[in-house]
What we know:
By secondary structure, this protein is an alpha/beta fold. It has three domains: about 5-95, Udp-n-acetylmuramoylalanyl-d-glutamate--2,6- Diaminopimelate Ligase, Chain: A, domain 1, CATH 3.40.1390.10; about 110-285, Hexapeptide repeat proteins (UDP N-Acetylglucosamine Acyltransferase, domain 1, 3 Solenoid); about 295-320. It has a nine-stranded parallel sheet with strand order 8-11-14-17-22-25-28-31-34, with no helix packed on it. The protein has a nine-stranded parallel sheet with strand order 10-13-16-21-24-27-30-33-35, with no helix packed on it. An eight-stranded parallel sheet has the order 9-12-15-20-23-26-29-32, with no helix packed on it. Strand 6 (about 55-60), helix 3 and strand 7 form a beta-alpha-beta unit. The protein is flat, with a radius of gyration of 25 Å.
Amino acid sequence: MALSLASITQALGGELxxxxxxxxxxLAPLETAGAGQLGFLSHPKxxxxxxxxxxxCVIVGPAMRDTALARxxxxxxxxxxxxFARLTQLWKRQSGPAREPAVHPxxxxxxxxxxxxxxxVGALCVIERGARIGAFTVLKARVTVGEDCILGERCIxxxxxVIGADxxxxxxxxxxxxxxxxxxxxxxGNDVEIGANTCIDRGALSDTVLEDGVKxxxxxxxxxxxxxxxxxxxxxxxxxxxxxxIGAHCTVGxxxxxxxxxxxxxxxxxxxxxxxxxxxxxxxxxxxxxxxxDNAAWEKNAxxxxxxxxxxERLKALEHR
Length: 321
């Protein structure tokens, strides 16, 4: 498959400099792109790669226009990264529709589940009683959707994800554990994407909720009764404990943990590997982790940290005297 520069800019816009009939055969990273390939520059710190690139054409911002023109064809746009994202969508559409059946013959679907005719269900999926799958939603291989769980329109669920397993609820009983039946479900809005082997637990009484536009990476754990606001994104291996509420337009870095029953405001950004131990009421960028060091130094610092409270009390006593 190939697209001309003219067809790309006609579909997506942008200020084209170069031969409109030049054919692009594939997309590639700027540093490895060659003849017939299109790359993009999203950050000025990579401009050294721009001058050396052999790409047939590059997507750049206005500040990089002159540098790009000095090496050859370019498309100038306000946001190269966003333009590249839309170009990948265009490329996939042009590559042709999927040929597999709308519902793979190996899928197991309860008669009481409701699946929109435009949805696609991959191999070995399981959709249980009362589940509802919205229009143009795609479930890839081995996805499980538990009973009464709802997925909105245009969602993508990657292989191995489990939506609606029981939440982790047990009551102590004479040294053993008594199961708390999880009577809620999971409600997922429109345009949500869920990564491979991610688990979203059903609620204990009310539902676990993911609002429109939420994006979850691979191996994310969302506990029961969690509520995640619109257009929030969680990177791989992040974990959110039960009944936490995360606002809209937030990001949670890879491996970060949000403890249960906390409230996170809109527009909060959590650094990778952080542990959120308290509610956050104001937008901003938050980090909480102990920096890596060689082991001997780390052990000494950790030992000092354990004494920090007693040192603080001694300092207060000295100040009082």
